[in-house]
Amino acid sequence: MKTGILLFAHGSRTREWAAPFERIGERIAARRSDTAVVCAYLELMSPDFHSAVDGLVEQGVARITVAPLFLASGSHVQHDLPRLVEEAIERHPQLRIRVLPVIGEAEALLDAIAAWVADQSFEG
User: Fold this and answer.
1) Phi, psi for residue 48 in degrees, rounded to 5
2) How many CB atoms within 10 Å of residue 98?
């Protein structure tokens, strides 16, 4: 059963804004060559969530892990994302979708951010 990872971010009018998310996707793909990895955006950018899901399904993906690349769980994650997942499953009933917690809840990421900021700050 082919699997996919969908990196879900907000979107921006500035194309360069997506570069870090695309780099994350490239790094995941390098680690998981057996998994299709795509980015999708809530608004202002392409592909949107449904287009990304449709593309994965066209590649034969039957299970998708959605990674919300948000620092906190606001209304987009609490309301918009569940609706999008529900609609995707209605469109593709054979599809299994797992949604991870928002990336900002990952203790390893919080530790990495704290260490980076501490290392960059002025010394005492």
Assistant:
1) -80, 175
2) 12
N-term to C-term CA, the chain = 54
The amino acid at 13? R
CA–CA separation, 80 vs 98, rounded Å?
A: 15
Considering the entire predicted model, what is its pTM?
Answer: 0.93
Establish whether the linkage from the previous residue to 47 is cis, with ω within 30° of 0. yes
Domains detected in the chain:
2-120 (3.40.50.1400)
The CA distances from residue 69 to 20, 91, 93, 118, in Å, are 10, 24, 25, 23
Please, what's the largest Cα pairwise distance for the chain?
58
pLDDT of residue 62: 97
Per-residue tokens: 20: 């870090």
pLDDT digits (tens, 9 = 90+) for 42-61: 999 999 999 999 999 999 99
The residues that are catalytic are 10
- CA proximity to 89, closest of 48, 60, 53: 53
